[in-house]
Design goal:
single chain; alpha+beta; binds zinc ion
């Protein structure tokens, strides 16, 4: 990687994260599994120590450096087998624990950091990039003499002056990957003043040029997964047939994920071919999908329907599309309020305008169109206005707006418990 020189420093920098598949001989996968296990062990041991300290003295040292010191001590006295693994690939998990504690202190309602259960916890660990494990020829050094190949490493050549800043290795459905966050020269996009509004929906994406992008139907695969899961439930846990079914399920899930990613790449290309200025709704997938079940006291309404919607929303993975759009153009986000209820022709806003999920009919001017297309046009109008600041004609919303309700009041900081 070329070093940063004086004149490059003035260049504006931005971040991209690139995912590579890790491949190599069999012993590499064994070592990766061992590393994930060592990381899980360290997390649990450190967490147990923190809890014990708190129970005994009412205090526990959860800062990163004190955890690092504990690691050194622990390795020398109790777990000498840890010295088999490089520090840069095992110690970093403790930084994650420190962050988890800090978040817990700030928001106790999030809950105390939890122990990671074997077989249940995701196999993943962070990498200390300062030990420069990523080689220029696209190999990742796991330890002395053991390298894993980062597949399609050439992709990094798209960016100028990439400098790796952080990395994480993880297993996803039976395959190993590394995600590296690079600092790169920020691309300069010239806003062409055209702008495309994009309305993201379950299973389809509409843009303001009138295109409707459909996601590939994966119902057949989903059905197959359901059948396999039913079959897996009948098998004896840990048996050969159980493992075999599990593997097949993983393969099908991976297939769906790949199809989705491919869809999103194509959609992002089609949209950015029209304009490099992309206008999106700022959607809060978390808030929309959380809490379908509700609590025992206040059970949620339409639990089943909402659960279906949640599956739909998460299944389309909007954030992936957003990432790809950001790679190819400039993404500007707007407030999504009322975009689906306002008429894109005359500006009349009424909840009755939206006749059904797909049909929009204005109650005032009888404008009849596809509901998603209408929303995409509204997003474009609103986005261009806020992007330009001036110059764009802002069509006023005619109906009376209600004040925002449900304003979340910051809760008082509570004393943490252990
Ligand atoms: Zn109208």
């Amino acid at each position: 990687m070329p070093a940063e020189s004086e004149n490059q420093r003035s260049q504006e920098r931005s971040y991209v994260s690139v995912r590579f598949r890790l491949r190599g001989k069999r012993k590499i996968y064994r070592f990766l599994n061992e590393l994930a296990g060592a990381n899980r062990y360290l997390w649990n041991a450190a967490l147990a120590q923190c809890r014990k300290d708190y129970a005994e003295t009412g205090k526990s040292k959860t800062a990163r450096n004190s955890l690092y010191n504990w690691y050194k001590q622990h390795k020398d006295t109790e777990a000498p087998w840890l010295s088999k693994y490089p520090v840069a690939l095992t110690r970093t998990g403790l930084q994650g624990l420190s962050v988890a504690y800090r978040e817990f202190f700030m928001q106790p309602e999030r809950g105390h950091p939890k122990f990671k259960k074997k077989g249940k916890a995701k196999k993943t660990f962070a990498v200390e990039i300062s030990s420069s494990p990523i080689k220029q020829n696209g190999y990742f050094r796991l330890k002395q003499g053991l390298f894993a190949k980062m597949m399609d490493y050439d992709r990094i050549n798209r960016y100028s002056n990439p400098v790796p800043k952080s990395a994480r290795i993880f297993e996803d459905r039976g395959k190993w990957y590394i995600t590296v966050a690079y600092e790169v020269d920020a691309l300069e996009y010239q806003a062409d003043g055209i702008g495309v509004g994009v309305d993201r929906n379950i299973r389809q994406v509409a843009d303001s040029t009138g295109q409707m992008h459909h996601l590939t139907d994966v119902e057949r695969l989903e059905k197959r997964i359901k059948n396999l899961q039913r079959r897996q439930a009948k098998r004896k846990k840990g048996s050969c047939k159980y493992r075999k079914t599990k593997k097949t399920i993983a393969r099908h899930k991976r297939k769906i994920a790949n199809i989705r990613r491919n869809d999103h790449r194509h959609i992002a290309r089609d949209i950015t071919n029209c304009s490099t200025l992309v206008l999106l709704e700022a959607l809060k997938t978390k808030g929309m999908t959380a809490g379908a079940k509700g609590t025992v006291e206040t059970p949620g309404k339409n639990v089943k329907q909402k659960a279906g919607l949640n599956r739909g929303i998460l299944g389309t993975a909007w954030s992936i599309l957003e990432g790809y759009l950001g790679e190819r153009g400039f993404v500007h986000k707007i407030n999504p309020a009322y975009t689906s209820q306002t008429c894109s022709k005359c500006g009349y806003m009424d909840a009755k305008n939206r006749v059904s999920q797909a049909v929009f009919r204005c109650q005032r001017c009888e404008h009849f169109t596809n509901a998603d297309m209408n929303a995409a046009l509204n997003i474009r109008a609103s986005g261009m206005a806020s992007f330009n600041g001036s110059g764009a004609y802002v069509r006023p919303v005619l109906a009376e707006r209600k004040p925002a309700i449900g304003h979340r009041v910051m809760k008082e900081q509570l004393t943490p418990y252990c």
